[in-house]
Write a structure and sequence with these properties.
Layout: H1 7-15, E1 16-21, E2 24-28, E3 31-34, H2 39-47, E4 58-61, H3 81-97, E5 100-102, H4 112-118, E6 127-130, E7 144-147, H5 150-159, E8 161-165, E9 169-175, H6 184-195, E10 204-208, H7 210-213, H8 217-225, E11 234-237, H9 241-247, H10 257-267, E12 279-284, E13 291-293, E14 301-303, H11 317-330, E15 345-348, H12 356-366, E16 375-377, H13 382-390, H14 393-399, E17 403-404, E18 425-428, E19 443-446, H15 449-458
Parallel strand pairs: 3-4, 3-6, 4-5, 6-7, 9-10, 9-12, 10-11, 15-16, 15-18, 16-17, 18-19
Antiparallel strand pairs: 1-2, 2-8, 13-14
Helix pairs in contact: 2-5, 6-8, 12-15
Length: about 475
């Protein structure tokens, strides 16, 4: 009888071309996803006289360096000449090599980790690599997604394969039901605050349990997106009927006879009941509250009802010293109630929380109210923007004094003109809160979309549950 296998092992078995050590595998890559950054991978390929092996399986997105306002001017409207050059070079490389390209003017333009799933490119059982660490987002579909460097991108362009060291496995089981106002973002921050930003270091994580199965696909993407913030290599969720319903009839999903074959295959990918994992973490989802980061790492987070902790109570010396430094940078004092912290501006967007479900959550809080501080809403793709406008969500945001912008990474990366001024606090739905992430001297508090909207209308970190019904 064959030994029981995890979902990860099943995907690796399907994609392994060869191996050169016990745990070092050469994997076939289904999709290679790039943004404007790794242009030197294309340059290196050209210098060596090589061609892209399978152009239809490399997809380029203008997302990190595009502006979210003033799109009518095209690339001429990008003020930073370096950023403009990177966007233009991606287009030139796409035209030269024949890869799929979603540029600034494309109706499907958007953040790579939002558009790939919404086009139906991410299927259960695939291997998807990308020039950005948050490629792990695709694990929400039962795919193995992970970020790689420019030299590895070059290797994939030339060979459609990549060397991959097989990671140990960690299963995180979330039992119970998430409470009112508690989102996948809160779940991710709660897990990270518990195990630490290095708690998943090197692992491939499989998320399981009733609370995970109850999540919509957009929420599963949020959870898998934050996997990299635990130090993990990848995060995966077993495909089910929600996966099927999400993918059906999307442009790059199987169709016709292939659809039935795909459904049968996808069902076989779940981890076997007797599969063994190298580590296990159990979480009671019913105990969680909306979360807020107060420091400069994602594990420096607490429930919104709590106060800023005293670093002296942290037993780990390294983590204690890090917390002490973070509070100095953030301008916060131990014992301060989180709901007393004033906010200067709000950002709702990023590959973590800029899908239609996220915008609905934020609009539910903002509806009929008025923002006290500057707040911008940046849809994850132009498709998300059109869908939100069809539902009238943009009117909710505009009526509440929020800005409604075009798609892009925006204030998450601080590399496209959307910045938080030095010393100001931003309630952000993005995934990283390190020093200077949103601009030099900026102070970032990571929250869910509903929590961000609550901060906008109160001017402080507020509990979104005070603004939503049952």
């Amino acid at each position: 009888m064959a030994s029981a296998k995890t979902m990860l092992q099943k995907v690796l078995d399907l994609h392994t071309v060869t191996q050169r050590a016990e745990d070092e595998l050469l994997l076939y890559v289904d999709y290679n996803v790039v943004h404007e950054g790794p242009f030197y991978a294309f340059d290196g390929l050209a210098r060596e006289g090589r061609k892209v092996m399978r152009p239809s399986q490399t997809v380029g997105f203008a997302d990190h360096y595009v502006p979210t306002v003033g799109r009518k001017l095209g690339t001429a409207g990008i003020a930073d000449p370096e950023a403009r050059s990177m966007v233009e070079r991606l287009q030139q490389n796409a035209e030269r090599t024949g890869i799929l390209h979603f540029g600034m003017a494309d109706p499907q333009q958007g953040i790579m980790h939002v558009v790939v799933p919404e086009l139906g490119m991410a299927h259960p059982g695939m291997v998807i690599v990308g020039s950005d660490s948050h490629t792990c987002t695709n694990g929400a579909f039962g795919a193995l997604g992970f970020g790689v460097g420019a030299s590895q991108i070059k290797h994939v362009l030339a060979t459609q394969t990549i060397w991959f060291r097989k990671p140990p496995t960690l299963r995180i089981t979330v039992s119970g039901d998430l409470g009112r106002g508690v989102s996948a973002k809160d779940l991710a921050l709660a897990i990270i605050s518990r195990i630490g930003v290095a708690g998943g270091s090197g692992y491939a994580i499989e998320y399981a349990g009733d609370a995970v199965r109850s999540l919509a696909m957009e929420s599963r993407m949020t959870l898998c997106n934050m996997t990299i913030e635990m130090g993990a290599r990848a995060g995966m969720i077993a495909p089910d009927e929600k996966t099927r319903d999400y993918l059906q009839d999307r442009p790059y999903a199987p169709s016709g006879e292939a659809w039935g074959q795909a459904l049968s295959f996808w069902q076989s990918l779940r981890s076997d009941d007797e599969a063994r994992f190298d580590a296990q973490v159990d979480v009671d989802g019913s105990e969680l509250q909306p979360m807020v980061t107060w420091g400069t790492c994602q594990d420096e987070a607490s429930a919104v009802s709590a106060s800023i902790p005293d670093p002296r109570a942290i037993t780990d010396p390294a983590r204690r010293a890090r917390a002490e430094h973070a509070l100095v940078y953030m301008g916060l004092k131990p014992g301060t109630p989180i709901r007393d912290i004033k906010i200067d501006r709000v950002f709702i967007g990023s590959c973590t929380n800029a899908r239609l479900e996220d915008l609905r959550d934020a609009a539910a809080v903002a509806r009929g109210k008025m923002a006290r501080i500057p707040a911008i809403v940046v849809p994850g793709s132009m498709s998300v923007k059109r869908a939100a406008e069809a539902e009238g969500l943009h009117e909710v945001f505009l009526g509440a004094g929020f800005e409604w912008r075009d798609a892009g990474c925006s204030m998450c990366t601080g590399s496209n003109g959307d910045l938080v001024p030095a010393g100001e606090r931003c309630a952000s739905t993005s995934n990283r809160n390190m020093e200077g992430r949103q601009g030099k001297g900026s102070r970032t508090h990571l929250v869910s979309p509903a929590m961000a909207a609550a901060a906008a209308i109160t001017g402080r970190l507020a509990d979104a549950r005070d603004f939503i019904g049952n």
